[in-house]
Amino acid sequence: DADVTQTPRNRITKTGKRIMLECSQTKGHDRMYWYRQDPGLGLRLIYYSFDVKDINKGEISDGYSVSRQAQAKFSLSLESAIPNQTALYFCATSDREKLFFGSGTQLSVL
Amino acid sequence: AQRVTQPEKLLSVFKGAPVELKCNYSYSGSPELFWYVQYSRQRLQLLLRHISRESIKGFTADLNKGETSFHLKKPFAQEEDSAMYYCALSGSNYKLTFGKGTLLTVNP
Question: Which of A6, A54, A64, B28 has the most CB atoms within 10 Å of its CB?
Fold first, then answer.
């Protein structure tokens, strides 16, 4: 299912660097989300967007920012990466009935 | 605030045995509940939602508003059911909150 595409798949970076994770979708959905997955903590919502002009903070938005460049694109940025942001990041879209997930970006901050 | 609790991090059963993955929720309004599954090296995908009241891959889940639970059940587990299972709740703002997940292992 390549309807929700995340790039890169893997990224290793150093503390203090700026990182951007990109997400694009071909489903035509208005709603897009960024989650991070950590062992033992499940998925936690970072940011979500219900349309191009609507951006909302999730439960763990500190240290992150997002940009909704178009209906199909939703990018997540770490302005100054820190080691506890090492995690698996998922983008998702929604048709108001269920979420469709990307395959994830494994980010390691050294 | 909306909250989802999955009390078991790990659950191990033998093939053919019944399995129940527990999920409890906290939400003041009328929630919509889901189960998502993540098989090894695959992306998360929807398993079932309570509104559909359907059985997927032999799994069922009934919303019990009195006990605020949405437990996932299967009468006879299969090895291919081994995966991480997440219970999730959507409130009136359509924001999905996930539990911490239960890793199910079905042994041969």
Answer: A6
